[in-house]
Amino acid sequence: MSAQPHSYAADDPETALKYAIQHIEGDRVQIVEGVIALMSPSWSHESAADSIRRQIEPAVRRLDCISGSGDLDLPGTPNWYIPDVAVVPSDLAKDAGALVPDQTLLIVEVTSESNGDTDRIVKRRRYAEYGAPLYLLVDRQERACTLFSEPGELGYTQTEGPLPFGEPIHLPEPFGVKLDTSQF
Questions:
Q1: Do 133 and 86 touch, CB atoms closer than 8 A?
Q2: Cβ–Cβ under 8 Å, residues 101 and 145
Q3: In total, how many domains does the chain have?
Q4: Which of 174, 166, 137 is nearest to 58 (CA)?
Q5: Whose CA is closest to 127, among 97, 110, 104, 111?
Q6: Which residues, 6+ apart, have CB-to-CB distance to 135 below 8 Å?
Q7: CB–CB of 155/149 below 8 Å?
Q8: Cβ contact 87:67 at 8 Å
Q9: Domain region containing 105
Q10: How far from chain centre, in Å, is Cα 135?
Q11: What is the pLDDT of residues 9-46, one digit of tens each?
Q12: What is the CATH number of the domain that holds 105?
């Protein structure tokens, strides 16, 4: 049995690259500054993300949103991210293949040994550039959480943290939630 090629119209390399990674079967793939990266988080990594999902769930439901790790496109760049957790309005998520960071209410990245600097530096800068209102960095190597807010042209203008694991971190409205970080 032969594989049937997908047909598409790509006028530029960005479109072709983003199309290609969306059609890799069986793997979740993101692109960070033009570098393709397979996503294979460890269970300890997933445990931290799951703890956050569980704690914010009442607020997510109250806001008529969903939380997940759907695709985020950064148009005009060679970036296609898969955040560990993103909160988006339910009506936007229904028919979307990918969203843009400014369509989220919260993005969470949990660092791993292999991607810590990407989450600390590159994604923080890009999420601010693309208007993500809240970016929570769960830095497992530094054992601390930092919440970035108020995105601007030069990055986030407000920062809470880094707060050591075990110290709660407050997610402002519309969430109004204090996250217990002791299990990260």
A1: no
A2: no
A3: 1
A4: 174
A5: 104
A6: 106, 107, 108, 109, 123, 124, 127, 128, 147, 148, 149, 156
A7: no
A8: yes
A9: 42-179
A10: 8
A11: 556 778 887 877 776 776 688 889 888 888 778 889 89
A12: 3.90.1570.10
